[in-house]
Design goal:
Largest sheet: 7 strands, mixed
Bound molecules: flavin-adenine dinucleotide
Number of strands: 33
CATH topology of the largest domain: FAD/NAD(P)-binding domain
Number of domains: 3
Shape: globular
CATH architecture of the largest domain: 3-Layer(bba) Sandwich
Oligomer: single chain
Strand content: 25-35%
């Protein structure tokens, strides 16, 4: 008998908890595969603590394979879905080889992406707070700026380096700023040439209060706490743009800074936008049973999905994009997939959030739990207890608890882990018979033959194989990159061969910016 296959795209709160629950309910009767572009689960609410050095980066994540025993985990990027053929199209491995995976049930839970295009310059000059690498980058940036400010003789450079800005006063903005404030206070004694009053921490919020999802009283408490700790909160202020040196606001003010963290402007990812599904409010509309409207056996939950919470056409209510809701939806979704395989009625998603809470750094927090408002140290302890409880896997819980304990007694580390810039070009060496490129790969870049020779082999439309020799001075890749297509042919070294590879992103940027280079290449691309 055919074992039904469930493919889950995304290893976040939605995807990982659906896989876990489904594996438990199905008792091996379903073939479950989870595809994610990273092989670990990121506990996003803890990212500000990673950025501030409270938590070690690897402690705030859980390897998917550890947590999902019995589920096939595939590290790959899904690029397309063929809903008619019931196939997921993905690129996997370092060489980005194209694969198609069949499914009987599909779960799309790929979260949201930061949409920085809303503010000119933000794509190049701001940091986001979505992934472990973002948190790691922010921590490095803060330390780099403090190091620079401690030794520079130029007041303007010092001012730039010591101004840290967070765009957005929602949960992630407030938590990020709270942790940044704590970090600079704790590492300041290591920098004798910096006075606290020289450090500017600025949070920019469009609305008239921070944490607008919480009752006004808690927003005010959060604002007071932040201000007490030296944070300037610019309320009713819109972000306009950013440059290499400053952030500009809609009311004409500017802030000289090298560090802008943006927690606003979330939207659908390029992948989601490319699907033949009409998005509503930037999300996939699903029924109350979590099935995508108009697509049988395709489901969606978490930040990706627009999940209705009522049936009122005039005042529709939708699930907010929070971890709490994603986990609750995963529970119902796993049950519904089981119901569908057995021909039973589906369950409707209903959920009443237990409450909301935020950490403000400096051992303070705000919380509203079952209608009760809590502030200060009790709220902060509640926040920590709730997050320890929600963390997946005992090992992750223990690691995070130990990090918190050590942080209580130990100074923050100021080790600066400089990221080495990846060069735009690199040399590649091959021996006789080694394959440089397969057909149907995403082109790695533009190749130039420096020594040796190669054979290029591709299949014509009539099925015949065609061969070409590539000699010293020959090049390839420019046309495939220009047409955004996969590689056609297989290329194999015929002797000891050295190539120069120009990275695809850098090659494309140079090509689009410099017309003579583009003209030269276009002439050869015929
Ligand atoms: C800084 C911060 C603080 C937060 N604090 C809180 C909080 O205190 N409380 C709360 O409830 N919520 C909080 N949230 C929100 C919460 O983290 C999200 O609601 C939650 O992560 C949504 O889960 P998800 O599974 O929908 O998406 P995600 O957790 O974003 O997971 C998406 C997954 O899909 C993968 N993926 C994406 N595209 C592809 C593709 N094409 N192919 C393969 N894999 C793909 C990603 O790699 C990722 O693994 C916070 C968020 C942030 C950023």
């Amino acid at each position: 008998m055919h074992t039904q296959k469930v493919v889950i795209i995304g290893g976040g709160f939605g995807g990982m908890f659906t896989a876990k629950k489904l594996h438990k309910l199905s008792k091996g009767a379903l073939d479950i595969e989870l595809i994610s572009q990273i092989n670990y689960f990121v506990y996003q609410p803890l990212l500000p603590e990673v950025a501030a050095g409270t938590l070690n980066p690897q402690d705030a994540v859980t390897p998917l394979r550890n947590f999902l025993k019995g589920v096939q985990v595939r590290l790959a990027e899904v690029t397309d879905i063929d809903f008619d053929a019931k196939q997921v199209v993905l690129l996997q491995g370092q060489r980005k080889i194209l694969q198609r995976i069949n499914y009987d049930h599909l779960v799309i839970t790929t979260g949201q992406a930061a949409n920085l295009s809303l503010f000119p310059g933000f794509e190049h000059h701001s940091l986001t707070m979505k992934d472990l690498s973002d948190a790691y980058r922010l921590r490095n940036r803060i330390i780099e700026c403090m190091e620079m400010a401690d030794v520079t003789r130029f007041p303007d450079i010092k001012q730039h380096a010591l101004t840290f800005v967070v765009g957005g006063g929602g949960f992630s903005g407030v938590e990020t700023m709270g942790e940044m404030a704590e970090m600079v206070d704790r590492i300041l004694p290591e920098y004798p040439n910096i006075q606290r009053h020289e450090i500017r921490l600025v949070m920019i919020q469009l609305g008239n209060r921070v944490l607008p999802e919480l009752p006004e009283y808690l927003s005010e408490y959060a604002l007071n706490q932040l201000e007490k700790r030296g944070v300037e909160v610019w309320l009713n202020t819109g972000i306009h743009s950013a440059t290499q040196h400053a952030l500009y606001t809609n009311d004409g003010r500017s802030l000289p800074t090298h560090t802008i963290v943006t927690t606003i402007g979330n939207g659908p990812s390029e992948f989601l936008k490319s699907l033949p599904i009409e998005l509503q409010r930037g999300r996939i509309a699903v029924s109350a049973e979590l099935e995508v409207l108009g697509l049988a056996d395709v489901w969606s939950i978490g930040d990706t999905a627009l999940v209705p919470l009522n049936t009122n056409q005039d005042h529709p209510l939708y699930a907010p994009p929070t971890a709490q809701f994603a986990v609750a939806q995963a529970e119902v979704l796993a049950q519904n997939i089981m119901h569908r395989t057995r021909g039973e009625n589906l369950a409707t998603f209903t959920y009443k959030a237990a409450g909301m809470m935020a950490s403000l750094g400096g051992r303070r927090g705000v919380a509203e739990i079952y209608g009760r408002r809590v502030t200060g140290i009790p709220a902060w302890l509640l926040w920590r207890a709730a997050y320890i409880a929600m963390l997946p896997g005992l090992a992750t819980k223990i690691r995070v608890a130990l990090d918190w304990l050590f942080d209580f007694f130990m100074p923050r580390t100021i080790v600066y882990m400089a990221e080495r810039d990846r060069p735009a070009t690199r040399y590649l060496d091959y021996a006789d018979g080694e394959v440089v490129q397969h057909a149907n790969e995403v082109p790695a870049g533009f190749y130039i033959v420096l020594s040796g020779s190669l054979t290029q082999e591709f299949e014509r439309a009539n099925g015949e194989l065609e061969h070409h020799q590539l000699q010293v001075g020959d090049s390839w890749g420019s046309r495939a990159l220009k047409e955004h297509r996969l590689t056609h042919g297989k290329i194999t070294a015929r002797e000891e061969t050295q190539l120069l590879l120009v990275n695809s992103g850098d090659f494309q940027r140079l090509r689009s910016a410099y017309a003579p280079f583009n003209n030269l290449l276009s002439a050869g691309d015929k």
